[in-house]
Amino acid sequence: xxxxxxxxxxxxxxxxxxxxxxxxxxxxxxxxxxxxxxxxxxxxxxxxxxxxxxxxxxxxxxxxxxxxxxxxxxxxxxxxxxxxxxxxxxxxxxxxxxxxxxxxxxxxxxxxxxxxxxxxxxxxxxxxxxxxxxxxxxxxxxxxxxxxxxxxxxxxxxxxxxxxxxxxxxxxxxxxxxxxxxxxxxxxxxxxxxxxxxxxxxxxxxxxxxxxxxxxxxxxxxxxxxxxxxxxxxxxxxxxxxxxxxxxxxxxxxxxxxxxxxxxxxxxxxxxxxxxxxxxxxxxxxxxxxxxxxxxxxxxxxxxxxxxxxxxxxxxxxxxxxxxxxxxxxxxxxxxxxxxxxxxxxxxxxxxxxxxxxxxxxxxxxxxxxxxxxxxxxxxxxxxxxxxxxxxxxxxxxxxxxxx
Length: 404
Description:
Elements: E1 2-3, H1 7-16, E2 23-27, E3 40-41, E4 51-52, E5 56-59, E6 69-75, E7 90-94, E8 106-109, E9 113-116, E10 119-122, E11 132-133, E12 144-146, H2 154-162, E13 167-171, E14 175-181, E15 185-186, E16 197-198, H3 201-211, E17 215-222, H4 230-238, E18 242-246, H5 256-263, E19 267-271, E20 275-276, E21 282-286, E22 289-294, H6 298-316, E23 324-330, E24 341-350, E25 354-358, E26 375-379, E27 391-396
Parallel strand pairs: 1-19, 6-7, 14-17, 14-18, 15-16, 18-22, 20-24, 23-25
Antiparallel strand pairs: 2-13, 3-12, 4-11, 5-7, 5-8, 6-10, 9-10, 19-21, 21-22, 23-27, 24-25, 24-26, 26-27
Helix pairs in contact: 1-6, 3-6
């Protein structure tokens, strides 16, 4: 086990132990937001043949001196596939999205035509190719539709449906178990007695786990005074790919979380990372499973999750675990100097350039700064503070690095 490692070294140690979970097939109706497990290519053109882009009349020009007057030949309803080709100077009725008869050179919108003496008269100039969706106009056969490792958006779902996919290969969702360790914590739905505090960390991390494309499969609250046996946590880990211990990371009598990890038979990767908030943090591995220990203070717990656990969850889904940093102008500044590297909860927005605002409630125990937080300002060790208008490094917290 390494003690007092840098943030980057701790993240590197975690990254080396992360391998994508197996690929599974899920219904296309349940695949949005999941990570595609393989490359999917077009097996045909889209559309497969020429189609009309409007309700109107398909025509075949009559030669070099097209008069704009056409003999009506046929009429096709949506869903009918024309087999008889259009003759030169002839027209037929077609509908939006309908297949066009062979020989079609243009389509006139219905509102741009009139019928006179049984013939079609165009009210606009003829232009070859007008209002025709050509074969392969959207996608050509063999063209990539979705790449492995891409997040499946509603648009990607629509595209795969257009090619007839009903089951989509995706990386399995990481399963996460949460264990809150403290002598004074009770479930959030209970009425606290004097000296007790409702647990907000399990709901907090459950929401953050879901935001990162994963799911919580087990959770529990355990008192430090009960000296929970290692098999209790082993039972939690048996239902998960990742176990996150919350609290028990620092006490006068010792660190409960790393001792529990060792008693479970896990290999400790590191302990203590000089960052604020939540420097008393660590990670371990047991077989192919990861274990994290995070501070019990809500803000420190959230920051620790974003710095250590979230990258691991991304890697388990075949995504890049690398953090997404951007430069931004700090609107209001942060005058407090720092000894160790500090992560300040902020709100990033695009307002005539990327701006970030330091949120109120920066103490590790406070929840206020988490409510609108979508970014962390990375404040270097030894910084005298941040002035209003100063450019800062910002870690975006969206799983895809977007501003939400």
